[in-house]
Write a structure and sequence with these properties.
By secondary structure, this protein is mainly β. It has four helices and ten strands; from the N terminus they run H-E-E-H-E-E-H-E-E-H-E-E-E-E. Strand 7 and strand 8 form a beta hairpin. The N and C termini lie far apart (49 Å). The structure holds the ligand Nc1nc2c(c(=O)[nH]1)N[C@H]1C(S)=C(S)[C@@H](COP(=O)(O)O)O[C@H]1N2 and molybdenum atom.
């Protein structure tokens, strides 16, 4: 194995480095997956004002795609060239159409963790509800059975153990966004902390 850091100089966002291995980082315990109790929900401002709910059997049969992308944590590690497989944000909104007034989504996880995204970030290339990483099922530590992946934003937006998407007609801060982290979280602009937010980058 070549060390990806020395193989060639791939541009990383400012302040980032490539560690050995893939760190596990989250707040709170790793939830236990019980397929019979598990569901995935869509609620909030849907197009027809209805809610969506998929059981694990149903969710597993939704069409998936693959994408390769880097993964940038605000604690400064970057994992390059991950092969993710899952349901893209673009495919997801086809399955569960949002109301035209929807501007943002909140992605919810087990134990109430959440992250907010602009709709454009949810629809961006590479954003997906991933079930597989580098050809294998996610491990419990990394979000099994389903995690959001938003490769172009800091990884606290990449919600592990995702259980629901809420469509928002007004932005609202998620778990870390409420606790001092940047509402948008673009690593190329080093948007780490909320005090860096400019007009229009946070909910009114
Ligand atoms: N449900 C949940 N998802 C989460 C977190 C969390 O605390 N809970 N932490 C986030 C943070 S801060 C990071 S850096 C990434 C880390 O993902 P990894 O453990 O797969 O490296 O998960 C994100 N997703
Ligand atoms: Mo993080």
């Amino acid at each position: 194995m070549t060390d990806p850091g020395t193989e060639f100089e791939k541009p990383l966002p400012p302040g980032q480095y490539v560690p050995r291995g893939w760190p596990v980082l989250h707040y709170g315990p790793v939830p236990k997956f019980r397929p019979k109790d598990w569901d995935f929900r869509v609620y909030g401002a849907t197009a027809g004002d209805q809610q969506y709910r998929w059981s694990w059997d149903e969710f597993e049969r939704l069409p998936t795609e693959k994408a390769i992308a880097d993964f940038h944590c605000v604690t400064k590690f970057t994992i390059p060239d991950n092969l993710w497989e899952g349901i893209t944000g673009a495919a997801f909104v086809e399955l569960a159409p949002p109301h035209p007034d929807v501007t943002h989504v909140m992605v919810w996880a087990e134990y109430g963790y959440s992250a907010n995204l602009r709709m454009a970030d949810f629809l961006a290339d590479g954003t997906m509800l991933a079930t597989h990483h580098n050809g294998e099922r996610l491990t419990p530590d990394h979000g099994y059975p389903v995690r959001l992946v938003v490769p172009h934003l800091y990884a606290w937006k990449s919600v592990k153990w995702a259980r629901a998407v809420e469509y928002l007609v007004q932005d609202r801060r998620g778990f870390w966004e409420e606790r001092g982290y940047h509402n948008t979280a673009d690593p190329w602009r080093e948007q780490r902390y909320s005090y860096q937010e400019e007009d229009g980058e946070s909910p009114s």
